[in-house]
Model the fold of this input.
Amino acid sequence: MSTLIEVNHLSKSFGSKKALNNVSFTIESGATTALVGPNGAGKTTLFSVLCGYLQPDSGTVRILGQPLGHPSLFGKLAALPQDATLDPRFSIQKQLCFYGLLQGLSKVEALQDTTRVLELVGLSENHNSKINELSHGMRKRVCIAQALLGNPKIVLLDEATAGLDPINAREIRSLISSLSDDVSFILSSHDLAELERLCSHVLYLDKGILTTHNRNEQTGSSKYLTLQLQDQYKDAKELLKQLSGVLYVSQSQNKEFIIEYQASHDQFDIHLLKYCYKNNWQYRQLVNGHTLENQLFQKD
Ligand SMILES: Nc1ncnc2c1ncn2[C@@H]1O[C@H](COP(=O)(O)OP(=O)(O)OP(=O)(O)O)[C@@H](O)[C@H]1O
Done:
């Protein structure tokens, strides 16, 4: 693993408003990273600084070991801004080729790469369409195709699935997931369930202050499972406490339990599911560790 992005003590203010307040983090290659936070938390500002659109007031950013703006970074980092759009006058192929040329590709290379990225996003047959002839979801996919031109190593996607119907959103998610072995994505979204599925690493911004969370970190002598049951079963919490290997049970929401158990307990998840069956409980979902929502917002 190598470090893709290293941010140290980054601050950016607009007048008296601190959009980023002493933000530091690193992102390693191979991680799909979520950038989460309430409206106005500083997410777009952080993306804009990483892309070089905005100059920070203080702090440093290194991408692939180089400072922002270094010539060797040209084409290595791409971004899909929240409100990205394309020119309605030209076909999508023409526009993507144009962006390829701007990246320094020859005409032939730009056309080849346009064909490649349109195929990746499933829009090969629409290469002659103009943007207004495409659905909202297809337009998003064109914008993602544009971000993938030239094979960038890091792609920042700001609200890539916002406003899409569930089927189109799912297509974009599976596209991100299928590409994530070759490209490191940083996704900004308000959809925690979506980030839960895609991301191993979470950057949480609130009022410009950042905290980081590792989704897969389950170390030490105890581990966690989050169990969501179908119904409110009588004495479920007390009964869960009696299961062998359980150290502690807390109730995060109605019908949802966080179970801390001995890490040394073999196949605890299987035992838990058998226990549900034995007690006649239907379960809705079982998450390894904490759900992202609990990780970010649970107070105790
Ligand atoms: N160009 C600007 N001029 C003045 N204030 C700005 C500017 N850009 C951002 N801000 C302020 O900085 C703060 C962070 O804004 P930012 O757009 O980064 O938040 P965000 O997390 O992307 O929000 P959202 O989820 O609503 O898109 C907000 O208080 C915003 O009002």
